[in-house]
Design goal:
heterotrimer; A alpha/beta; B mainly alpha; C mainly alpha; B: mainly alpha; 12 helices; 2 strands; 1% strand; C: mainly alpha; 0% strand; globular
Chain lengths: 444, 298, 301
């Protein structure tokens, strides 16, 4: 028995050691134009996008077109729409060194480590070599960049996040659209006393609440705050940090969010807004088809409008600068990059924007015009127009910025803070401690 | 003494023939990964970097420096307790009631088992709505109707109620299964014993504690072990319903370990927590066997 | 407990008529009515979710979004089912789940019987140790095996196959099966074996002719209990399966998740209703056998 045990332990060591060391890739991540013959084969794209969504449908079609000239080519799309399950899958694949030709990731610290190890192609050089770099919206590319400005992911979307509101409900409570972020708590109090839920929020998915804590520092100190915060160079105990912590606590005290929001899901929150029960709802242009078309309940259709992220007094960023994400990006595996992958990407990325804009969505590039669907309300065009007047800075969602452990803790503590279970002081202390503990591991 | 050996003449080879295939599968699928985990628990590894040997650092961190770990451990115990009460207590009560029923037993037994076949995704979603306060869910509505309006609350957002609220669906799901097992055992209690006791003037309670329960004790031990281990392994429902929140109020060791591995990509530390869970489960089963068997002998 | 003060009323089905003694009082109905009511209440609690699930799958999206989720739907529609079949590949998902469930069950039952036979019937010096070793498997959480197994499977090219799901599912369910078979084999009287032995039957024939046929009811129990878990398994499938063709039901249900985590719930519920039907049917058919298995197992004690 002992012998078996020893043998098994030895085998375990070897198996793990083998994979842990076998990480080095053979390809140079900056060699974007490989020479050689294009040999058609099957390539895979591991992605986290809706199974029946525009991106997948278009890329499927483009891959079929490409296969007509390159028999034997096939694009195998492996989608895991649920983000946490996707991340688990991506990480296991990375750990086993089995990443496919193309894979989705945000500009997370984990992705940055992959890039550092030379596992992803340099997307900036790749796009430049395909001669399409300049067609991309700068904001769409910036969203994908790591802090050092390097670019390893290619965007397929471009979205703008607004605060949607119900004019009739605001009127009923006698409040106006907030001129400053600091007006929101008082606004919530007024709405509550009129018997209206101020803001519907999807608490279950965590990122919506995390958006709110990013707003004040973005206005107060600009986009640099979170970049410094995540490394422990800025702190929640700093003035900008304290401002947002206290603001979040005030939002909670004013009962801005629906009772029990922490367990409520995406569709529940949206339904509360679209059925006229909640006055405000913070969401991006990906919801245009349900918020700005005749799919919207006729009872509220004419009352819905949106405003962009309010500024504050002495704001470091302008009103036309807010959250404008380009979605999860696509990375190109350096190890499997060859003339075929390069040729296919050239083919697909050139044709993609026109097809995508035809579905009524904002393309990550500027060379195409979005087609407004026939059933759209005037709000649709108004929302799209915002994309043209954007400033140069954008508010980054914190969940892609912080190291994952800190991020997880922040999401948990934030709910407690807003619910009033912990004080702003406790929150500040816990979070600063957590960052100090975890940041060095990810940002050394 | 060889109490286990029932066949007087069997060859050594025959034992191996029967034993090796299951051991092989089990070794490959379960034991080997556990050993790998044990091995990993002494390293710091994020999946893509080089592995770095850190000795017992992970264990020190777990026992000394990690407040979430202890919180999750305590939560797991409470979660287990609630599941056990619902599953075993509920199963015992229902099974006892069922034996007094004349007709419709078969139908009811089947109906009881239904929740077990529904996927956890649907169950989690349903219970989120049942517990909801804004809009008012079923539970709060019920309290309102019976005049207990003061009890209305967002069950899953209240740090004091969330743990019980996520335990209940898990407990409820498998009550039917355990009920069935216990019911079968209760039916097997010889009727002569019961009748004799009844003639001696035993009350229902005595009848239960002195005749029925001792008789079903072996089955009871099995069910307890099953329920305990499934309870300690509980994962899906808390993960789907609250993801451990609000704060760490419904974080269990399993959800915490899963997050440590796949959110924080701290595979070394996650393995350390796994090792702890394995030990914890072993201790739990040992305790059950010790307590219930000793009682039987006494 | 209510039973404490109630008059002793043994199960009526068992003792239909007892000579009327002087201790017999006529007050049994309170207890019986009470237990009936209790049973009915619990039945409602147990059945309600399934009914709710089914009703919700028949609601229109609009009704689901705005109406009271617990009221009866204002109008019924099959549209969700149409959407469920259109978006996902439910047939294939069901087939895959079926293959995985069957494959795992065959392994579990066969290997479980063999191990229990070796441990309980044949017996050997280290049988206690082996039993303990298997016990570990009942109690470890499956999540711990994910990363190591993924690495091992990719090393031997087993990723993205039916086997990559079947092996861990079977491996982790094996201990409970062995445990159940062992408890059952304990009750097969030694004489049965001795008699067969005297007739010259070796261990293989005894296994095939005596032990296996006798275990039928336990087999049904093991299969049903495991099927419940395996049919709905998400974690192994999500980790080891990559291609669309191998997706099982829980993975298929993800097809209804849209942008940023927005779920098409009515279609999901329609899909859930479709996908639990096969399991439900098997369950209803085999339920009797399972109960018998448990009952006969318990009577042996």
């Amino acid at each position: 028995m002992k012998k078996i045990f020893r043998a098994a332990a030895a085998a375990a060591v070897t198996a793990l050691a083998l994979t842990a060391c076998g990480g080095a890739s053979s390809t140079d991540p900056s060699n974007v134009s490989p020479t050689g013959e294009i040999k058609a084969r099957e390539i895979s794209w591991l992605l986290s996008r809706p199974a029946d969504g525009a991106v997948i449908n278009i890329m499927k079609k483009l891959a079929e077109d490409y296969a007509k000239d390159h028999p034997g080519f096939e694009l195998n799309l492996i989608t895991t729409p649920d983000r946490p399950s996707y991340i688990q899958k991506l990480e296991t694949l990375a750990a086993a060194n089995k990443l496919p030709e193309l894979f989705d990731t945000d500009a997370t610290p984990f992705a940055q480590q992959l890039a550092k190890q030379g596992k992803m192609m340099d997307a900036e050089q790749l796009l430049k070599s395909l001669d399409i770099y300049d067609t991309y919206r700068p904001g769409a590319l910036d969203y994908q960049r790591f802090d050092d400005g390097s670019l390893y992911m290619i965007p397929f979307q471009f979205e703008l996040e607004f605060i949607w509101y119900n004019k009739a409900l605001l009127e009923k409570a006698g409040v106006a659209v907030p001129a400053s972020l600091d007006d929101i708590p008082a606004m919530c109090t007024a709405l509550r006393s009129a018997g209206i839920t101020p803001i519907a929020i999807d608490g279950q998915d965590q990122w919506p609440l995390e958006r709110y804590i990013a707003y004040q520092p973005f206005r107060e100190a600009g986009p640099e705050f979170v970049q410094e915060l995540k490394k422990g160079e800025a702190k929640f105990s700093d003035p900008a940090g304290q401002k947002t912590v206290n603001w979040m606590a005030e939002l909670g005290k004013a009962k801005c969010f629906q009772d029990g929001f922490s367990a409520q899901g995406y569709s529940d929150a949206q339904n509360q807004f679209t059925s006229g029960q909640a006055a405000m709802y913070n969401i991006g242009t990906w919801e245009l088809p349900s918020l700005a078309t005749d799919k919207l309940d006729p009872a509220v259709r004419n009352d819905i409008d949106f405003f962009t992220l309010p500024t504050t007094a002495g704001s470091a960023t302008a009103a036309n600068e807010f959250v404008s994400p380009s979605g999860i990006g696509m990375a190109v595996n350096a190890k499997t990059y060859d003339p075929l992958v390069s040729d296919f990407l050239k083919f697909a990325l050139e044709k993609y924007p026109a097809e995508y804009a035809a579905t009524g969505a904002l393309s990550p590039t500027t060379d195409v015009e979005t087609v407004v669907p026939a059933n759209a309300t005037p709000l649709y065009q108004k929302a799209l127009d915002q994309a043209d007047g954007l400033g140069s800075k954008q508010a980054m969602p914190w969940d892609t910025q912080l190291d994952p452990t800190t991020n997880g803790r922040l999401q948990q503590e934030l709910v407690l803070l807003v619910q009033g279970n912990i004080t702003p002081e406790q929150f500040t202390e816990t979070m600063d401690k957590t960052i100090a503990q975890n940041a060095p591991k990810f940002f050394k | 003494m060889q109490p286990n050996r029932m066949l007087p003449n069997r060859s050594r080879t025959s034992v191996l023939v029967f034993l090796l295939p299951p051991l092989l599968l089990y070794g490959a699928a379960v034991l080997f990964p556990i050993l790998q985990s044990l091995f990993l628990s002494f390293f710091s590894w994020n999946g893509i970097s080089d592995m770095e040997f850190v000795g017992v650092d992970n264990y020190v961190r777990m026992f000394v420096a990690d407040d979430i770990f202890w919180r999750a451990f305590l939560n797991a115990l409470v979660y287990l307790a609630i599941c056990l009460v619902l599953q075993l207590g509920g199963a015992l009560v229902v099974a006892s009631l069922l034996t007094s029923l004349r007709r419709g037993r078969e139908l009811i037994k089947t109906l009881y088992l239904l929740p077990a076949v529904i996927s956890t995704v649907a169950i989690a979603f349903l219970f989120v709505r049942i517990y909801s306060l804004e809009p008012v869910g079923l539970l709060n509505q019920l309290f309102h109707w019976v005049g207990l309006g003061s009890l209305e609350r967002p069950w899953l957002s209240d740090v004091n109620t969330v743990l019980a609220a996520v335990s209940a669906p898990e407990g409820w799901r498998f009550t039917g299964l355990y009920m069935l097992i216990i019911y079968a055992a209760l039916l097997a209690v010889p009727k002569e014993l019961e009748e004799a006791a009844v003639l001696d003037g035993a009350s229902r309670w005595t009848l239960f504690t002195k005749i029925r329960f001792p008789y079903i004790r072996p089955v009871w031990i099995t069910t307890t072990i099953m329920a305990t281990t499934y309870g300690l392994r509980g994962f899906d429902i808390p993960y789907l319903m609250t993801n451990g929140g609000p704060g760490q109020s419904s974080e269990l060791l399993t959800t915490y370990m899963y997050k440590t591995a796949f959110t924080s990509t701290d595979f070394g530390y996650a393995s350390t927590i796994s090792v702890f869970i394995v030990v914890e489960c072993l201790v739990a089963v040992g305790l059950i066997l010790f307590l219930l068997k000793r009682k039987a002998d006494a | 407990m209510i039973t404490q003060t109630a008059p002793p009323t043994p199960p009526a089905a068992v003792v239909p008529a007892r000579p009327s003694g002087k201790r017999r009082r006529r007050r049994p109905d309170l207890f019986r009515t009470l237990s009936r009511v209790l049973i009915m209440l619990i039945v409602i609690v147990q059945v309600y979710p399934l009914a709710w699930l089914f009703l919700t799958s028949l609601r229109t999206e609009q009704d689901f979004a705005t109406g009271d989720p617990f009221a009866l739907p204002s109008s019924l529609t099959w549209e969700n089912y149409a959407r469920a079949f259109e978006t996902g590949d439910l047939g294939r998902n069901i087939l895959n789940s079926f293959i995985v469930t069957m494959g795992a069950n065959i392994l579990i039952v066969l290997l479980g019987m063999m191990a229990a036979y070796a441990i309980q019937v044949l017996g050997f010096r280290l049988s206690k140790l082996v039993r303990g070793l298997f016990l570990i498997g009942i109690i470890v959480p499956v999540q711990i095996a994910l990363v190591p197994l993924f690495i091992d499977y990719s090393a031997i090219n087993l990723l993205d196959t039916y086997l990559s799901m079947i092996i861990p599912l079977a491996g982790f369910s094996l201990p409970m099966a062995i445990y159940l078979f062992c408890s059952f084999y304990e009750y097969i009287p030694k004489e049965t074996y001795e008699a067969a032995s005297l007739d010259g039957a070796g261990p293989y024939r005894i296994f095939g002719l005596i032990t296996m046929p006798l275990s039928l009811n336990t087999v049904v129990t093991v299969v049903l209990v495991n099927s419940i878990f395996i049919w709905n398994d998400f974690i192994f499938a999500n980790t080891f399966v990559l291609s669309e063709d191998l997706k099982t039901i829980p993975l298929g249900l993800q097809n209804y998740i849209g942008a940023m985590g927005k779920v098409d719930w009515t279609a999901t519920f329609a899909a859930v209703c479709v996908t639990i039907t096969p399991l439900l049917l098997v369950f209803l058919v085999l339920n009797k056998a399972m109960i018998q298995g448990l009952e006969s197992g318990a009577t042996k004690g």
